[in-house]
Amino acid sequence: MGNNRLQTIDFITMPFRSSIMAKADLSYSGYFHYHQGVELLYIHEGSGTLVLDQQVHTMKPGDLYIFQPFQLHHVKADVGEETPYVRSRIQFEPQVFQRYFEPFEQLMEVYQHLWKGAMQKQVFRLMPQHAPIETLLQYYGTASMLPGHERGRMERFATLLQQLLLAVQGQLQDVLPQPGFAATRSLTHSEAVLQWVEQHYAEPYRLEVLAEELHISKYHLLHTFKRETGSTITDYIQVRRMKEACQLLGSSSLPVADIGTQVGWPVASHFVQRFKKWTGVTPHQYRKRQRRAMAELEVKPDQA
User: N or C: which end of the chain has fewer CB within 10 A?
Assistant: First the structure.
């Protein structure tokens, strides 16, 4: 849906995403959104505001922001002909990259904290004064464009994460919990809904069950979620099912009817109807298009 302000990312086929030194176009508009994984946002140029945990932060060049899984945030940049907004975004599934941090005890503490901890600090100011973040991101962006860059992508990305967390480690030392006292972050009502949907989107949706599990009235739950995300819970569940259906159609050979059942539409005709309404094509057409696109992107060994 065009007005849906929530964003999910397919971390199954690729456990990380990066957009390095990307310049926003003039039509850029902010919106509340979240990611299943962790996101790092670094500001190269521009200004604006960022809403995080009911607090408004003024964005400036050199700022680094860390968003935890399912944490709603709103980025609004002041974009103009003379005032570009340039940022780097890194999003990843923390479960996948945990193994790259396990050999380093102190760095592993930082990693676990930004993944699951009750972070008291998520905004890091004027990072160029403390660490060569610009250089790290530029190097990674350049390396990702070189011939044969697909080889070793995971290790290269893991190394970038390690370097970035080393850069903020010093600023986090004072707020890291003592060993044995690691507090987990409490979720807002909307974030709790998002997490619940991740676990139950393929099941029949009943508002009363959700409200009871979250210990909140149905009225308050509906209105809070709509106000904070710009989406209804029903619409978001449809989006989440559709995202999963697209992923399965593109990455598996499961029959269309089985995919429909797996994502919450057990009646095949209903699934096809819903899918075409949201994507403009049938599941079979989508799968054929995805396979054709993947074939065109495939690099032959002698071209690598």
Answer: C
Side-chain half-sphere CA neighbours of 50 within 13 A = 22
Domain 16-172 indexed as CATH 2.60.120.280: yes
**What b/e string do you get for 97-118 counting C-beta neighbours within 10 Å, with b at 16 or more?**
beebbeeeeebebbbbbbbbbe
* Amino acid letter, residue 81: E
Q: What is the pLDDT of residues 210-224, one digit of tens each?
A: 999 999 999 999 998
Q: Is the pLDDT of residue 12 over 60?
A: no
Q: Please report where in the chains the tokens 């002041």 appear, as a residue.
A: 78
First-to-last alpha carbon distance for the chain, in angstroms, is 38
The DSSP result for 247-280, as a single string, is HHHHH----HHHHHHHHT--SHHHHHHHHHHHHS
pLDDT at 65 over 90: yes
Query: How many secondary structure helices (H) and strands (E) does the chain include?
Result: 11, 9
253, two tokens? 């050979």
Looking at residue 65, its amino acid is Y
Return the CATH class of domain 189-294.
mainly alpha
Given a contact cutoff of 8 angstroms between Cβ atoms, the answer to whether 230 and 223 are in contact is no
Per-domain residue ranges of the chain: 16-172, 189-294
Per-residue pLDDT tens over the stretch 232-275: 899 889 888 987 898 788 888 999 999 999 999 999 999 999 99
